Amino acid sequence: MARQKHFRLPDDVLERINHRDKELYPTENVYITEAVRNFFKKEETENMMDELGDIQDKLDRIEKKLEEDAGKKYSSFSSDAEKKELYGKPDFLKY
After folding, report:
1. Using the 8-state DSSP alphabet, how is residue 3 labeled?
2. 31, 20 in Cβ contact below 8 A?
3. What letters, b where the CB count within 10 A reaches 16 and e where it falls short, cover 15-54?
4. Which of 45, 18, 17 is nearest to 33 (CA)?
5. Which of 68, 69, 5, 59 is nearest to 32 (CA)?
6. Spatial distance between the Cα atoms of 66 and 70, rounded to a whole number of angstroms
7. Is the pTM of this model over 0.70?
8. Which of 9, 29, 85, 86 could form a disulfide with 13 if both were Cys (CB 3.0 to 4.6 A apart)?
C-alpha cells in the first residue's frame, strides 16, 4: 500500500523530473520510484562487484600457491630422476 510523503527537492532535480521521458514515465511518482529502485540496484551491484573482487584476489593467491608447490614438486622430481640415472634401475625392476 502506498503512502503519501512530501519532499522538498532542489531545482536541478525538479528540472530533471519535469524533463523526463513522459511516455516511459507518465507520472512524476513513477519516475521517482524507478530512480530510487535503480539506486538500490546500483548499490547492490557495487557490493557484489566488491565481493567478486575479493574472491578473485583469493583465487589468485591460491593459484600462485599451487604454482609454487608444483614448482617445488617438479624440482624434486628432476632430482629423483637424476638419482635414478646415477644408481641405475631400482632393485625391484632388476628381476
Report:
1. -
2. yes
3. eeeeebeeeebeeeeebbeeeeeeeeeeeeeeeeeeeeee
4. 17
5. 5
6. 6
7. no
8. 9
